Amino acid sequence: MINTVQKIADTLKKHQIEDAKLEARMIVASVLNVDENNLFFECPPLNEEQEKQVAALVEKRIHHYPLCKLLGKKGFYKYDFSVTEDVLSPRPDTEILVEATIAEAKGSKAKKILDLGTGSGCIILSVLGDVDSLQGVALDASSKALAIASQNAQNLGLQNRVDFVQGSWFDEDIVSRLGNDFDIIVSNPPYIPSKDIASLEEEVRAHDPISALDGGEDGLRDYRQIAKISNSLLKDGGKIFLEGGINQEKEIAAIFEQEGFSLVGILKDYGGINRCIILKK
Hints:
By secondary structure, this protein is an alpha/beta fold. It has 11 helices and 9 strands.
């Protein structure tokens, strides 16, 4: 088994795949349906069918098909989430948004949270998983994304604590559909300027939904709309937690301040980038 993993790792490395040995273990473990950490303990050699499955996965990976979407899952915060090409792959950059939201929910005794643009559900489900007193609502325009998020809720045993709503923050009736009694709003909206989409890494550009990436001409289109509706969605004193792109934090804060919000703080992600913008109604 060690030799098999090493051969796969060598192949991946030749095609500029970072963490080649880890990915090789993950691919083989996925086919064998075992935990990657137990791969070298009492695992039988691959049979002929399994070798074909591994070869097919490796072939896709060397052409930079995202590993998480090959395997159908991605670890984020404390949990594993099902992912497909219908949802944005969860990223470590977003974990600071989750941690800040959890801290607010626990400290404020919040009861209800809204996730705008839920995708896989990784943000709201991570928060609900840590804060037992919360109920959630998750909005997404994509029915396929909502199906994935709903499945993730089922997998985590949280299906009774979150309602999934199909719609857009640009819909005229969205406030009446969602309600006006939220203590917290959390959102990771599209924020990449349209002109920059073509220069994204292939794994992102070709395999994440463009609708979850493209934030319009300046990348701030969706923040303007979210700012317009958030006053009507949040209770007085409620807070909104937003993810932003590199060097966007001041402009995002200004957009919300123009709608009457006050800036609470800006938090860096673990790469040192100003990532999480926190505002209060």
